[in-house]
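Hi everyone, sorry if this is the wrong subforum. Our group has a chain we'd like a structural model of before ordering constructs, and none of us has done structure prediction before. Sequence below.
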Amino acid sequence: MVRTEVEVGRGLRAAAADVAEAWKAAEAGHVVPGSDRILFRDWSALCAVLTPKRYDLLRHLRRTPEPGIRALARALGRDVRRVHEDVVALAELGLVVRGADGSLSSEIDEIVSTIRIAA
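Answer:
Right subforum, don't worry. Here is the predicted structure as tokens:
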């Protein structure tokens, strides 16, 4: 199962401290497990990126990989330009995989979120 963590409301300093701690542990010879974690400054930032249409796109690609943007847009009944924008945004986060041949898929089975209210 491929799982990605999403955190909302975690400050940049806290995230940087985690990176520094992992770096020091690795330099000391300790094995540091990798983490697929996406951090968002606040709820608005999360909602701007993980929209309902992008969620539908992810679900579709998880079930049915597509040979390209046009095929994906046709399958979703959406405008090619908007689907392209969505694929670019989701690929930057590592949620969509673009093959060398232009094919599109998603390996994500689960997105787990932590939303800090009093951050």
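For your construct planning: The beta strands are 3-8, 37-40, 97-98, 104-105, 110-115. The chain is about 45% helix and 15% strand.
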